[in-house]
UniProtKB/TrEMBL annotation:
Organismal lineage: Bacteria, Pseudomonadati, Pseudomonadota, Betaproteobacteria, Nitrosomonadales
NCBIfam families referenced in this protein's UniProt entry, alphabetically: flagell_FliJ
Bias kind Basic and acidic residues: ranges: 100-109, 116-139
Single GO term (MF): cytoskeletal motor activity
Lipid bilayer topology: Peripheral membrane protein
A Pfam family assignment: FliJ
Keywords in alphabetical order: Bacterial flagellum biogenesis, Bacterial flagellum protein export, Cell membrane, Chemotaxis, Coiled coil, Membrane, Protein transport, Transport
Entry protein name: Flagellar FliJ protein
Source organism per UniProt: Sideroxyarcus emersonii
Superkingdom assignment: Bacteria
Amino acid sequence: MIKPFSLQPLVHLAQQKNDAATRKLGQLNQQHQSAQEKLDALQQYRRDYQLKFQEAAKTGMAPDDMKNFQDFIGRLDQAIQQQKSVIEKAQAGVQNGRSELMDTTRRMKSFDTLAQRHAEAEKKQEAKSEQRSQDEHTGRFAAYRAAEKDSND
């Protein structure tokens, strides 16, 4: 009979931590992608607004309108810089998430290796026990045959 692996609760815990790290990395990747999409949208909006400004400037515009355009482009530039900062933080989070996932995966594989070794050792022990049982049975049968032969002689 195979004995249960004594470290099985730790194997299960390592698998749970690895699953959690995998989910967390997925969320971090999603946050990074979302932040990048926002930056792309801000940059596209700035380019579009800059073109509008240039078109309006060609036909002539009031100084107040020109100042409003420039102020708004300045605010877009600030928003773009803030979004770049968000992306840098998101990238750092993704990198930390990758490191955490690598650690939990390594730990889980270590426990899996121990569990496999335990199972192999148990199988070998069971095979030895079975062989011993067969040898005993064969020996008893041979002794029985010999005794039976002696009694017939």
